[in-house]
Amino acid sequence: MLVLIFFFIFWGVFAAFGGSDYQANTFTLKQEAPIEFTENSKLEYPSDAELIHTSFSNWGANVGRDIIIKVEDIDSFIKIATKRYKFNEMTMDFPSHNREYLGYGFDPFQETLNPPFCLETKTMKVKPRYYQVTRKLTDPENFCGKREVYYSQLKRETELSIIMVILPKEGLVWLNRSDWF
């Protein structure tokens, strides 16, 4: 009986922390995106926003949520966002990350669970629970590579990081929430 209890405890921990998954642009994620954007950024979801990408990543106990929107009146959005948060003007070279991020002396994305954008592959194998599945990957248009951006860390805690990156020339806003265990 003790062996059986030990087996179920081991199986439960493995099931909770051993899986991985990536979902992008599902119906549910698209429906939740405006609410998630408002809750995580504490900014109103722009009325002229077009949802470009939304995804959910689960790597063991670590979870990432990404929302990318295209805002027609990006200048108005930047004014509203910069009144609420301090943004740094910088060059983002996504997905390239290193310790000396483009001369800034730090990597502003080191505490984020980055989405699998801008990779050479178009599929990813994940194991949501007990079996392995292949998920399609999509890259948002005008996102990869070197871009001039406004960057802000909206929230930084031990197990939580929320960042917002505004790409003014492209009219894009990227909101990333990463929960770490």
Structural class of the secondary structure composition? alpha+beta
> What would you call the quaternary organization?
single chain
Euclidean distance between termini CA atoms: 31 Å
| Estimated radius of gyration | 18 Å
Arithmetic mean of pLDDT = 79
Strand percentage lies at 35-45%
Order of H and E elements: HEHEEHEEEEEE
* Biggest pleated-sheet summary: 7 strands, antiparallel
Number of helices: 3
Low-pLDDT segments, ≥5 res = none
| Strand order within the widest beta sheet | 1-2-3-9-8-7-4
Shape: elongated
Strands, total number: 9
Helix content estimate: 10-25%
Query: What count of domains describes the coordinates?
Result: 1
What does this structure look like?
There is one protein chain. With about 180 residues, the chain is α+β, with helices and mostly antiparallel strands. It has one domain. The chain is about 25% helix and about 40% strand. It contains 3 helices and 9 strands; from the N terminus they run H-E-H-E-E-H-E-E-E-E-E-E. Strands 1-2-3-9-8-7-4 form a 7-stranded antiparallel sheet. A two-stranded antiparallel ribbon has the order 5-6. A hairpin with a 2-residue loop joins strand 2 and strand 3 (about 60-70). The protein is elongated.
From the structure above, extract its key features.
two-stranded antiparallel sheet, seven-stranded antiparallel sheet, elongated, 181 residues, alpha+beta
